[in-house]
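Input structure tokens:
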């Protein structure tokens, strides 16, 4: 799958999530139609097209993520995190839209959940 095709699938996934509040990424029926059913494969473990697009040496290349998540860390904290051998997973920072979407979904705040899912659908810019 090309990066462009991954972007298209990202939009479909997040649009579906906006249309199906309370569902998770793993519930998306598109995985099966794409033949992606082995989630133990590291590249698809996060069920994220952006992660899969930048997967390198057995882990996500978060620094090259095509999505620019809201990141409110200090410059000093970013440097510390960059030196850390663990993946940075910027999308899971409390300031990031993905983290906010998970919180809204888990708390049943459908209005916020849908709005954030639609925003995430459009966050991967065309290349």
């Amino acid at each position: 799958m090309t990066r462009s095709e991954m972007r298209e699938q990202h939009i479909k996934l997040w649009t579906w999530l906006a249309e199906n509040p309370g569902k998770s990424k793993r519930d998306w029926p598109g995985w099966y139609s794409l033949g992606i059913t082995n989630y133990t494969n590291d590249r698809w473990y996060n069920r994220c097209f952006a992660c899969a697009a930048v997967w390198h040496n057995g882990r996500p290349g978060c620094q090259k993520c095509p999505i620019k998540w809201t990141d409110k860390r200090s410059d000093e904290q970013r440097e510390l995190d960059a030196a850390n051998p663990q993946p940075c997973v910027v999308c899971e920072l409390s300031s990031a839209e993905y983290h906010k979407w998970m919180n809204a979904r888990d708390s049943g705040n459908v209005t916020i959940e849908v709005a954030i899912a639609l925003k995430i659908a459009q966050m991967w810019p065309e290349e």
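The radius of gyration is 15 Å. The chain has one domain: 3-121.
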